[in-house]
Amino acid sequence: MDRKTWTNADYDEFERMMHEKFPKMFAQPYGGFAIEPGWWEMIHHLCSQIQFHIDHQETMKNVHGMGPGCDQVVVEQIKEKFGTLRFYATGGDDTTDGMMTMAESMSSILCEQCGAPGERRHGGWIRTLCDEHEAERQALKQAAKEL
Protein backbone atom coordinates (compact mmCIF):
# COMPACT_ATOMS: atom_id res chain seq x y z
CA MET A 1 0.00 0.00 0.00
CA ASP A 2 1.51 3.30 -1.07
CA ARG A 3 1.64 6.15 1.41
CA LYS A 4 -0.16 8.34 -1.13
CA THR A 5 -3.15 6.02 -1.11
CA TRP A 6 -3.60 5.09 2.55
CA THR A 7 -5.70 7.22 4.86
CA ASN A 8 -6.48 7.49 8.53
CA ALA A 9 -9.55 5.37 7.78
CA ASP A 10 -7.25 2.61 6.48
CA TYR A 11 -5.26 2.77 9.73
CA ASP A 12 -8.47 2.68 11.78
CA GLU A 13 -9.68 -0.37 9.83
CA PHE A 14 -6.36 -2.18 10.32
CA GLU A 15 -6.36 -1.41 14.05
CA ARG A 16 -10.00 -2.54 14.41
CA MET A 17 -9.29 -5.78 12.56
CA MET A 18 -6.25 -6.52 14.74
CA HIS A 19 -8.24 -5.89 17.94
CA GLU A 20 -11.06 -8.16 16.73
CA LYS A 21 -8.76 -11.00 15.61
CA PHE A 22 -6.40 -10.84 18.58
CA PRO A 23 -8.37 -9.48 21.56
CA LYS A 24 -6.09 -11.17 24.11
CA MET A 25 -2.96 -9.65 22.58
CA PHE A 26 -4.44 -6.14 22.50
CA ALA A 27 -6.27 -6.31 25.83
CA GLN A 28 -4.22 -3.53 27.43
CA PRO A 29 -3.56 0.04 26.24
CA TYR A 30 -0.50 -0.02 24.00
CA GLY A 31 -0.24 3.22 21.99
CA GLY A 32 -1.45 2.03 18.59
CA PHE A 33 0.61 0.96 15.60
CA ALA A 34 3.46 3.44 15.12
CA ILE A 35 4.51 1.87 11.82
CA GLU A 36 3.83 2.48 8.13
CA PRO A 37 1.37 0.25 6.20
CA GLY A 38 4.13 -1.69 4.45
CA TRP A 39 4.64 -3.63 7.67
CA TRP A 40 0.97 -4.15 8.55
CA GLU A 41 0.74 -7.55 6.84
CA MET A 42 3.91 -8.73 8.59
CA ILE A 43 2.46 -7.66 11.97
CA HIS A 44 -0.78 -9.48 11.17
CA HIS A 45 1.10 -12.70 10.36
CA LEU A 46 3.32 -12.35 13.42
CA CYS A 47 0.32 -11.97 15.73
CA SER A 48 -1.41 -14.90 14.00
CA GLN A 49 1.57 -17.19 14.54
CA ILE A 50 2.09 -16.07 18.14
CA GLN A 51 -1.57 -16.62 19.07
CA PHE A 52 -1.64 -20.00 17.31
CA HIS A 53 1.43 -21.11 19.29
CA ILE A 54 -0.04 -19.93 22.60
CA ASP A 55 -3.39 -21.63 21.92
CA HIS A 56 -1.65 -24.85 20.85
CA GLN A 57 0.51 -24.88 23.98
CA GLU A 58 -2.57 -24.41 26.15
CA THR A 59 -4.38 -27.25 24.37
CA MET A 60 -1.39 -29.54 24.85
CA LYS A 61 -1.30 -28.65 28.55
CA ASN A 62 -5.03 -28.80 29.28
CA VAL A 63 -6.21 -31.64 27.05
CA HIS A 64 -3.16 -33.85 26.88
CA GLY A 65 -1.40 -32.93 30.11
CA MET A 66 1.77 -32.19 28.18
CA GLY A 67 4.07 -29.20 28.63
CA PRO A 68 3.86 -26.11 30.79
CA GLY A 69 1.65 -24.07 28.47
CA CYS A 70 2.55 -20.54 27.50
CA ASP A 71 1.64 -17.20 29.06
CA GLN A 72 -0.53 -15.00 26.85
CA VAL A 73 1.45 -12.42 24.89
CA VAL A 74 0.13 -8.92 25.53
CA VAL A 75 1.37 -6.11 23.29
CA GLU A 76 2.95 -3.12 25.00
CA GLN A 77 4.26 -1.21 21.98
CA ILE A 78 4.68 -1.64 18.22
CA LYS A 79 6.85 0.94 16.50
CA GLU A 80 9.64 1.69 14.07
CA LYS A 81 13.05 2.68 15.41
CA PHE A 82 16.21 3.17 13.34
CA GLY A 83 14.45 1.73 10.30
CA THR A 84 13.39 -1.54 11.88
CA LEU A 85 10.38 -2.90 13.74
CA ARG A 86 10.25 -2.93 17.52
CA PHE A 87 7.62 -5.30 18.96
CA TYR A 88 7.43 -5.02 22.74
CA ALA A 89 5.21 -7.45 24.63
CA THR A 90 4.89 -9.35 27.87
CA GLY A 91 4.27 -13.08 28.19
CA GLY A 92 5.17 -15.76 25.73
CA ASP A 93 8.11 -18.13 25.71
CA ASP A 94 11.31 -18.75 23.76
CA THR A 95 9.32 -19.62 20.63
CA THR A 96 7.30 -16.39 20.65
CA ASP A 97 10.46 -14.41 21.44
CA GLY A 98 12.04 -16.00 18.37
CA MET A 99 9.04 -15.07 16.24
CA MET A 100 9.29 -11.45 17.36
CA THR A 101 13.04 -11.39 16.71
CA MET A 102 12.50 -12.83 13.23
CA ALA A 103 9.87 -10.19 12.38
CA GLU A 104 12.15 -7.43 13.65
CA SER A 105 14.93 -8.81 11.44
CA MET A 106 12.65 -9.13 8.39
CA SER A 107 11.59 -5.51 8.77
CA SER A 108 15.11 -4.43 7.81
CA ILE A 109 14.54 -5.74 4.27
CA LEU A 110 10.87 -4.78 3.72
CA CYS A 111 9.80 -1.29 2.66
CA GLU A 112 7.94 0.42 5.49
CA GLN A 113 5.58 2.09 3.04
CA CYS A 114 4.64 -0.69 0.62
CA GLY A 115 6.11 -4.00 1.89
CA ALA A 116 8.25 -4.56 -1.23
CA PRO A 117 11.89 -5.60 -0.84
CA GLY A 118 13.82 -2.68 0.59
CA GLU A 119 16.90 -1.71 2.53
CA ARG A 120 17.84 0.56 5.38
CA ARG A 121 18.47 4.07 4.08
CA HIS A 122 20.48 6.66 5.96
CA GLY A 123 20.65 10.42 5.56
CA GLY A 124 18.64 11.91 8.38
CA TRP A 125 15.90 9.67 9.68
CA ILE A 126 16.88 6.02 9.08
CA ARG A 127 14.16 4.32 7.07
CA THR A 128 13.75 0.95 5.38
CA LEU A 129 12.51 1.72 1.88
CA CYS A 130 12.33 0.20 -1.59
CA ASP A 131 14.10 2.01 -4.42
CA GLU A 132 10.88 3.76 -5.51
CA HIS A 133 10.08 5.17 -2.08
CA GLU A 134 13.71 6.15 -1.51
CA ALA A 135 13.64 8.08 -4.81
CA GLU A 136 10.46 9.86 -3.64
CA ARG A 137 12.14 10.66 -0.33
CA GLN A 138 15.20 12.10 -2.09
CA ALA A 139 13.01 14.15 -4.45
CA LEU A 140 11.17 15.66 -1.47
CA LYS A 141 14.48 16.49 0.20
CA GLN A 142 15.70 18.16 -2.99
CA ALA A 143 12.48 20.14 -3.37
CA ALA A 144 12.74 21.34 0.24
CA LYS A 145 16.32 22.57 -0.41
CA GLU A 146 15.12 24.56 -3.42
CA LEU A 147 12.51 26.48 -1.42
Rg estimate, integer Å: 18 Å
> Any idea how many domains?
1
Order of helices and strands: HEHEEHEEH
The number of distinct helices, counting runs of at least 4 residues, comes to 4
The secondary structure category is alpha+beta
> What is the number of beta strands?
5
Would you summarize the structure shown here?
It contains four helices and five strands. It is an alpha+beta fold and 147 residues long. It has one domain.
Overall description:
By secondary structure, the protein is of the alpha+beta class. It has one domain (8-146). Helix content is 46%, strand content 19%. Strands 1-2-3 form a three-stranded mixed beta sheet. Helix 2 (40-64) runs antiparallel to helix 3.
Quickly list its features.
single chain, 147 residues, alpha+beta, 4 helices, 5 strands
Q: Which helices and strands occur, and which strands form pairs?
A:
Elements: H1 8-21, E1 33-34, H2 40-64, E2 71-81, E3 84-92, H3 94-106, E4 119-121, E5 127-129, H4 131-146
Parallel strand pairs: 1-2
Antiparallel strand pairs: 2-3, 4-5
